[in-house]
Structure formats: structure tokens, C-alpha cells
Predict the structure.
Amino acid sequence: MKISVIISGLSMLYGNDLGRGLLETAQLADDAGIDQLVMTDHLAMGPRVEKYPYGKFPFPPEEPWPEPLTTLAAMAGATQRVRLGTGILIAPLRPALLLAKTLATLDVLSQGRLDLGVGTGWQAEEFAGAGLPFEGRGSRMDDALRACRALWRDAPASFSSPTVSFEELWCFPRPVQPDGIPIWFGLRLNPKNVARIVEFGAGWMPLLDRDEELWSGVERLRTAFREAGRDPDSLGVRVTPELARDATGRIDLDRTLDALPKLEEAGGSVASFALAACVRSRAEIPAFLERLGRGAN
């Protein structure tokens, strides 16, 4: 399996040295052989973190959330080989034209190393602060992604949908990846989301507790790919391994990595590790990334 690291816990790890810390971590991951670095996304945080739909929200409202595409652009200049991803980018918070231009520019700057992980977001306050309705955000995301594809493919590009429309626009530079920027979805599987992944998706980022749910979700998507004429083997699945810990509560990385073949059998293709869950201080990051990189190769 490929190894992905989510850079999280920024206040705990970097304190007031955020900019240098992020780039230092990117360089360490690049040197260690980590396959992908991922930044998460919030334009702002409201006080109602208990409304997080995937369990207890792990950070306080004052946790810093650097804008992910800006951060990944800086990381692109500081690294050579590691892929750079979002997990997730709240796509409906961004205008389609700006989204298309920013993503394409980042793909060019990284020489084709961008992976786009998208979702619809869960904070109504974040949308209200941006002057956008919370309702209908899924449809706006779909329209924006279709508009991006049109702008990246056609010159001039024209597009029409209920939420975004334009005629005869040139939008350069284009992404440099031959098949376009891979789009991954961090969504629960329901019929509408299965259809989204089949239409746009290179991969699925599930938030699941049991291997059986992962297996059934992968089989559901592979069947849908096959029925739509897509190669089911092209489906990527980024999973989060359960972290084994020793008696002191520290992560036992050897035991954790030993469990990856089971996740791969269940359909996972990328194992995702959140930095804040795996290290307790900035000083632990180099050894953690080095061991993780060795386990991946």
C-alpha cells in the first residue's frame, strides 16, 4: 500500500513556528519516501464543534487551519517527488473559476503531483461566514467540478448548470497530468455519492470503523464502476489504519504496519496516518516519517 500523511495538530507540533515547521515536515516526508502529504481545510471554525458528524472533533476552535492550496504550493517548491493532496478541500466554498485556476496552477507548480480530495463540509457557520447557503452545497460542488473539467479540457470553454455558467472562456495554464487532476471524495456512501464517485472520482476516502464496512463499500463502488463502463481496478481507496499502541500509549508503528495487508485485502490502496495522532512533539516527526517510509518500501 502507498503511505499518506495528513499534517494535523499544527498548534501542538509547531506553535509559533508554523511556516517553517510545515515546510520542514514536507522536506522530511519527501526524503523519507512517503508517497503523499495531505492538508485539510477550514476557512474558519465556528463554536459548534460537537456537530462534527464523524465522532468527537479532535481540535479546539482556535486550532490553525492554513489555506491548503496555498500551503501545498509552498510545499511543491520545497519537495521533489512526494504527491500533494487535500483531504478534504471544501469545494463548494470556492467559486468554480477560481477553483479551476488555482488547482491547475498548483498542478503545474508541482509538476503534476496534485491529488484533489473534496467534500461538502459540515459547518453551517463556515458557509454563512462566506456568504453562501449551506443547503445545496453538494449540487454546487458537482457543478463546480464539471465546470473545472470543461475549463481544463476546452479552449474556449463553455458550460451551463443551475449554479455556474459561462461562455467562451480560455483558462490557462492547464493541469499537466495527462489524465487530469485525480479527484477523490471524502463522503459517506449513499446512492448520490456513489454516482458522484463514479462520474468524477479516482478514489474514495472512507471514514469507517470496521473492515467489513470497507469491504462492502469497495465492492459497491467497484460494481458501480463496472456498470458505468469504468475499470473497477482503477478505484483508489484511502483508509485509516487502527493505531496499535504500547503500554505507555505511544504508537507501536511496527504492529500498526503489520496490519496493512489486511486493509489491502479489504480494498485499501493507500494507508493514511494523521500526524497529530502518531507523534507527541515536533522532535518525534523525523524518526516517525523515516520509519513510516521504510515500512512502505
Observations:
- Residues 2-296 form a domain with the TIM Barrel fold (CATH 3.20.20.30).
- The chain has a mean pLDDT of 94.
- The chain has one domain: 2-296.
